[in-house]
Amino acid sequence: MRTAVVEDALAGVEAGRRGGFGLVIGVDRTARPATRDALLRHGAHLVVRDLTELLVEAAEGGSP
Prior knowledge:
Number of domains: 1
Distance between the termini: 17 Å
């Protein structure tokens, strides 16, 4: 089974990665490079500013 977690807190992203979720999406509400980098360091596979970015990816045939 494939599972995903969406989280905006560093601790939540890290917990999702440690929990073995297939996809960990970090939401960067600050739009600062340092926050994006921190989410990635804590285990996010993908970082978006807004969840609508995921809809754009799906519509274009990408796989976030």
